[in-house]
Write a structure and sequence with these properties.
Layout lengths: L23 H14 L12 E5 L7 H17 L2 E5 L7 H10 L4 E5 L4 H9 L5 E5 L9 E4 L4 H14 L4 E6 L4 H17 L4 E6 L6 H13 L4 E4 L4 H8 L2 E3 L13 E3 L1 E3 L2 H13 L18 E3 L11 H15 L16
Parallel strand pairs: 1-2, 1-3, 3-4, 4-5, 6-7, 6-8, 8-9, 9-10
Antiparallel strand pairs: 11-12
Helix pairs in contact: 2-9, 3-4, 5-6, 5-10, 7-8
């Protein structure tokens, strides 16, 4: 279990009036300024909000990494203190949660999918600690909030591109497993592809793991050998296969163009910062509640978007880019809603 501390120091000097005499008015002014900056009138640094994350997978796994990146941004922009634990087995989840809660951490985030019952039971033991976990279920009073990667909208936009760019008429997706939060992304991708090309065929493969790049690569190669020429890399390992086979890929969760600039067209990006920012704001104000924070992952909230085209900016036909921009505008304006289909997709 790897851990890391990130701390930032703030300082403030005492202020006197112009005569050098400390008056009641100058003391009040100093106190007001200190309150505004989070410092006491004497210049001592106020305690920072302590935030922790618990990750079931290695930190480089895209889903968990997006939470981690958002919290690193919060360190710089919101002045929090941040610590994390990765590769935490379900059997150890409760213990790690307990350690953070007893250690004075006011907000604890993470992915509870593999430890739903344990995490909820533990949260009830520490009602003064705010817990916010990735979950396929609902929030639980008094302090267990939930979120998820509601990035099906940019996944749909990616599908539009895949449908137009496929020359074979067969697009594919290699994903973790047939669970709702994965299914809705894959289904949205295929829905976009079908919108762009009603005759397109689809291939689907699940690897049964959230992080197994070799297995994902193997599944991707099998799809490519079966005719897929544009593939949705819902898991790590797929882009590597597409690169080796000279096919196009759609990335997932983060901008992964750097992995294969000639292969990755674009992909849905999950920006967890709006969710993190909202949770931190509520905890600081003492009004954090057990609610579903999923809406903060939607495009209209800035929680998801389509990755830049990078090298494909000059490769994609103008009509394809125009089609995507038009549909994006309709989504943001509320004039088009991407269906949430959480049924397990199957190959044609």
């Amino acid at each position: 279990m790897n851990k890391n501390w990130i701390q930032v120091e703030d300082k403030m000097s005492d202020r006197n009036n112009s005569t050098g005499v400390v008056t009641r008015r100058s003391l009040l002014a100093t106190a007001a300024a200190a309150a505004a900056t989070g410092l006491s009138a004497g210049g001592a640094e106020a305690a920072k909000l302590k935030v922790a994350s618990i990750f079931a997978t290695p930190i480089e796994e895209p889903w968990d990494n997006q939470i981690h990146v958002a919290l690193q941004k919060a360190v710089k922009e919101l002045g929090i203190e941040y610590k994390w634990s990765e590769k935490v087995e379900a059997a150890d989840f409760s213990r790690v949660m307990t350690e953070y809660a007893k250690g004075g951490y006011q907000l604890v985030l993470g992915d509870a999918f593999a430890a739903e019952r344990e995490s909820r039971r533990t949260a009830k033991q520490f009602p003064k600690t705010a817990f916010l976990f990735g979950s396929g279920s609902g929030p639980a009073e008094p302090n267990f909030g939930v979120f998820d990667n509601w990035i099906h909208e940019p996944a749909y936009l990616s599908g539009l591109i895949a449908g137009k760019m496929s020359k074979s008429g067969v697009v594919g997706a290699v994903a973790a497993m047939g669970i709702p939060e994965v299914n809705r992304l894959v289904n949205a991708f295929f829905a976009g592809a079908r919108e762009a090309n009603p005759k397109v065929k689809k291939k689907v493969a699940f690897i049964g793991s959230f992080f197994d790049p070799p297995k994902a690569k193997e599944a991707a190669i099998a799809q490519i050998d079966a005719g897929v020429d544009v593939i949705y890399a819902e898991r790590f390992g797929v882009i590597e296969a597409a690169k080796e086979k000279g096919k196009l890929a759609i990335s997932n969760m983060s901008d992964q163009s750097s992995l294969a600039p000639d292969t990755v067209i674009t992909g849905p990006v999950w920006d967890m910062y709006p969710t993190v920012h909202q949770a931190i704001k509520l905890v600081k104000a003492g009004v954090f509640t057990a609610m579903d924070y999923g809406d903060f992952s939607r495009m209209v909230k800035g929680g998801s978007y389509l990755a830049p085209y990078h090298k494909f900016e000059t490769i994609l036909p103008a009509e394809v880019k125009d089609m995507v921009e038009k549909k994006k505008a309709e989504i943001l304006d509320g004039n088009f809603r991407v269906d949430v289909d959480e049924n397990t997709p199957v190959s044609d």
